[in-house]
Specification:
The protein has helices at 2-23, 128-136, 140-151, 171-176, 184-193, 214-229, 241-244, 247-250, 272-275, 287-290, 303-312, 320-337; strands at 30-37, 48-51, 56-59, 65-70, 75-80, 85-87, 91-93, 102-105, 108-117, 156-157, 204-208, 233-236, 258-265, 340-349. It is α+β, with helices and mostly antiparallel strands.
């Protein structure tokens, strides 16, 4: 027995030595550079660039150019300036690169493209297994790549309801959000657990979006095919933008299915208007008067999330760092319960 233990230890030691020699290559330093500009192409000077996990910081010159040498590995590059927001919010790089460019502006609006479940009117969507199944059945990376190639623009995939440009969302939290991986087999299993599929009823999903919007209709076609592959019947129910965004239709929850559209938000915004339970539209509301204050059209209710949103908007009682922590906890809850399916972000700069 003692001989076997000694032999095992010697074998383990040999594996470690071999791994140290051959299995784990040294991380080689590499050079990176880029430029930060306004949307019109003019360089922005004196912007700090955080590189790696606090490894180093450099600044842009008067033409907006910057450069650095990093020690190796997978490096996060983040432009930071209190007076500007940047697109994209960060880039990842692991080899020599000279084209790490960012566009900055003093004001911007992020448009969060998503598919929202009307859980208030559709009983099936009150089942988390159904929402997860429909989420996991969508190959969001393929969809974002498809529309990026079609429109010759790099859209940002969304893993949560807010972009990393939001003041309350720290970059590291945005990077770490995992979302849901594409897994159609697991999606089928979740539907069967919920009573749909081969051994149960077929799930029928009316799917609304704005008629004539090329990007949304492209995505709708792809998503519908992916849902049909897991046994879901999709009923296309598109309407004009005027009909979709009529307050009586949108906030009155007359769309009994899922809807793909976008909410706009600024970096200084909070999630309270979209996700607090007090912002769920109710029968008897004046949708023309109250609609913009009652935007929780998913009907999502979570007391813990409500409490976090109340605290993250209380600037008098909590510091920015504390409110960012509340936001990180809120996102964890939201991603677990997925009252909507995040797709991608578009961005609109103002003033240029």
């Amino acid at each position: 027995m003692k001989t076997l233990k000694i032999a095992a230890l010697l074998s383990l030691l040999m594996l470690v030595l071999l791994a140290g020699c051959e299995g784990v290559p040294d991380q080689e330093p590499f050079d990176i550079s880029g430029r930060i500009t306004y949307p019109d192409g003019q360089g922005i000077e004196n912007v700090k660039i955080n590189i790696g996990q606090g490894e180093k910081t450099v600044e842009t010159d008067e033409e907006g150019n910057w450069e650095a040498t990093v020690s190796g590995g997978n490096v996060l590059v983040v432009p930071i300036c209190e007076e500007y927001s940047f697109y994209p919010a960060y880039r990842k790089v692991q080899e020599d690169s000279t084209d790490l460019t960012f566009s900055g502006a003093e004001m911007l609006v992020d448009f969060w493209q998503h598919i929202t479940f009307n859980a208030k009117k559709v009983e099936a969507f009150q089942d988390l297994r159904v929402r997860k199944a429909l989420f996991k059945a969508i190959d969001r990376e393929a969809i974002v790549m498809e529309i990026s190639n079609h429109f010759d623009f790099e859209f940002e995939i969304a893993h949560a309801p807010y972009s990393p440009r939001m003041d309350l969302l720290r970059v590291k939290d945005a990077v770490d959000i995992g979302g849901y991986d594409y897994d159609p087999e697991r999606a089928k299993a979740l539907l069967e657990e919920a009573g749909y599929g081969e051994e149960g009823d077929q799930l029928t999903v009316p799917f609304y979006t704005t008629k004539g919007d090329m990007a949304r209709e492209m995505i709708q076609e792809s998503v519908s095919e992916m849902w049909e592959e897991i046994g879901v019947e999709v009923v296309i129910s598109n309407k004009t933008a005027q009909e979709i965004f009529d307050p009586g239709f949108l906030y009155g929850l007359e769309w009994e299915g899922v809807m793909m559209f976008a909410w706009g938000s600024r970096p200084e915004g909070t999630p309270i208007a979209l996700w607090h339970s007090e912002r769920i539209p109710q029968e008897g509301d004046d949708y023309w008067e109250d609609g913009y204050n009652k935007q929780n059209v998913a009907g999502w209710e979570n007391p813990e999330a409500d409490a976090l949103m109340d605290k993250m908007t209380d600037e008098d009682s909590y510091s920015l760092e504390e409110r960012q922590e509340f936001m990180a906890e809120f996102i964890e809850i939201w991603v677990e319960e997925i009252p909507a399916i995040p797709l991608y972000f578009t961005i609109e700069f103002e003033g240029y």
